[in-house]
Amino acid sequence: MRRRKQRGNDQAEVNMTPMLDIVFILLIFFIVTATFLQEQGFDMRPPPPSDEPPNTESNPVILVQIDAENRVFVNQRSTSEDRVLASVQRIRAEAPNSAVLIEPNNEAETGTVALIWDDMRSNGIPVSIQRQQGDGN
């Protein structure tokens, strides 16, 4: 009887050295060819102190009040809602950087407030709205 020759377990081995070489070459290639963007940021340093004295002259606020009966007052002078822009422009002729503060009553019509607001904004006048003081509702 003949004996069979036992073959050894032939296991295929993968040589990792060439693959590691290729990975390192690709890594070096991408590092060298990558473009590095310079990010822009904000300068967080405060400005140097000024030798000029601060401006103590403040611009007056033009107060436009609308009461519960839709009567309109510009700096406590009664006017119609159509004449508010003319009154404001007259006051701004003396103080060009002044802004308008609209104080509507809770019972005032929204259309009146919107009309005055639109007139101011369309003419480039800075405007804000604040509820009248003393309204309990």
Features:
3 helices; 5 strands
What does this molecule look like?
The chain is α/β, with parallel strands linked by helices. It has a domain of 60 residues. It has three helices and five strands, in the order H-E-E-E-H-E-H-E. It has a five-stranded mixed beta sheet, covered by helices on one side. The protein is elongated. The termini are far apart. The relative contact order is 0.12.
Computed over alpha carbons, the radius of gyration is 39 Å
Within the largest sheet, what's the order of strands?
3-2-1-4-5
Q: Residue ranges: pLDDT <50 for 5 or more in a row?
A: none
What structural class results from the helix and strand content?
alpha/beta
Give the overall silhouette: elongated
Summed up, the helix count is 3
Number of strands: 5
Terminal CA distance reads 115 Å
Reported for the largest beta sheet, the result is: 5 strands, mixed
**Percent of residues in helices:** 25-40%
Give the strand content. Answer: 5-15%
The averaged pLDDT comes out at: 83
H/E element order: HEEEHEHE
